[in-house]
Amino acid sequence: MKNKIVNLLSEKIDFLTNDDISQLIEIPPKPEMGDFAFPCFRLAKELHKAPPVIAKEIADSITLPDYVDHVDIQGAYINFFLKKTGFVQSMVEAVSAEDFGASTEGNGKTICIDYSSPNVAKNFHVGHLRTTIIGNSLYKIYSKLGYKVERINHLGDWGTQFGKLIVAYKNWGDEQAIKEKGVEELMRLYVAFHNAAKENPELDDEARAWFNKMEQGNEEALKIWKWFVDISLTEYKRTYALLGLDFDHFTGESFYRNMTSDIVKKLTDANLLTESEGAKIVDLEEYNMAPCLILKNDGSSIYATRDLAAIFYRKNTYNFVKALYVTGQEQKLHFAQVFKVVELLGNEWAKDQLVHIPYGLVSLNGAKLATREGNVIYAEDILLEAISKIKKTIEEKNPNLEDKDEVARIVGVGAVIFNDLYNQRIKDVSFSWEKLLNFDGETGPYVQYTYARCSSILRKAGIPTDTYKVDLSNVDYSIITDEASVELLKEISRFPAVVKDASEKYEPFIVARFAVAVAQSFNKFYTVNRINVEDENIKNTRIALVKITRKVLKDALDLLGIGVVEEM
Predict the structure, then answer these.
(1) Phi, psi of 116 (to 5 degrees)
(2) What is the pTM of this model?
(3) Structural domain tally of the chain?
(4) pLDDT per residue over 154-200, tens digit each?
(5) Which terminus of the chain has fewer Cβ atoms in its 10 Å neighbourhood, N or C?
(6) Which sign does the torsion angle of CA 410, 413, 416, 418 carry?
(7) Strand, helix or coil at 443?
């Protein structure tokens, strides 16, 4: 129906493309303002007239088609009021399609997303939770649009810190303790090293020497390092399993260590490398940036070198149209430097294909959570605590619920994810258990509860819930022309635009807000429209709307990395 309005307007506005007109069209905030609105501000420069004058002239020149009831002018806006039955039919037919919200725009194209990427032998803490949740949602959004997405976990598994850990293990470590306690014991050794190095600075020299051995391929050094990596990855994968996600590649910094010499050669051949205090750098002063360090004064590589190697490897291997890096905003300068170096090597694609996606910090206001050494809060602790709290609520409110443990996991983990994704990613996230786990308001449990309510309605009506197909053969569109039904359909019909907008802005929160809006609209619809009535015509029609809502809620939650439950 929107496309019909676009075509109608394009006959009168020949200097704008259909895409331009489509992007300008709005859905008014109130039903009494119309079904679609077209603002005329942009036309003023071309037509040399005031926008309200332009709006009236265009409206007066339109011959109303059979699907438009009337047109109204409000200031610079042309408001279109559609004939409800035809409007409702067009929306229902569109939103009931199995692939509603999907697109083929990404077919044959690859996007690489680099996210999560914890530092090996260190806690998987709340900061890693943010990059993991955001990255996973972006992966699902781009997949919905037809892209092939390479999910890359760029583990921090290389660098001087492993030299420090090897020294600590050899001096104070115990093999059995590491096997039993895993990353917790590795963290204890790491802290012990730093405490000891304050009194004995020569330990730092030993650490650098051990890392140099790793770089040179020393068998003993690499064996210990690999053991630390395996122990860490086992723990990290436990957290990923809780979140219900996985990666295509666990290719950390070490994967690219033998490719760094090629980077040094590229930079040398391009006359970009200069020496500074024995180290090799790329001078970026011309671009108002600090120099990009490529080789330390002992000749060993640094993470910038390995990031450069990773970019060229991924471009050559996957031929990506975009490579996204989901990390904290404190790494903004680092990626600006690395991307600029790629560009200076003669790669113009770096300007629009390499994208840093920053996010804000995490705080836990008043949350009583377990802390570990160094006052670091594990991501796993938060997820398990959320699951535990939901389980307790279930025991109180619905003790006979089947699969209580699985429901608690899906709802608890979903609550944490939704809380993270509900606001723009650059904003800091604050954990409040009261808000996080609320079954009312703008939360994950509220949206999941609305989905479960849809399933409950279908079960009571004797409709199977094992399929999302919608049968429109028994639908009487005139029945759902009331305000609540139309508003629900309008909200649902935004889904394709929402997915597209979220992909272009790298903002999953757009999908989260959409999910809440659909849930709220459905609950208003359900309040004023009885479903299980004797009139089969009314019942079948409203059931179709329930099934459509249920499917769209599931699809929207899936794009956020959140599951659904049939009963709560």
Answers:
(1) 75, -80
(2) 0.91
(3) 3
(4) 999 998 899 999 999 999 999 999 999 999 999 999 999 999 999 99
(5) N
(6) negative
(7) coil
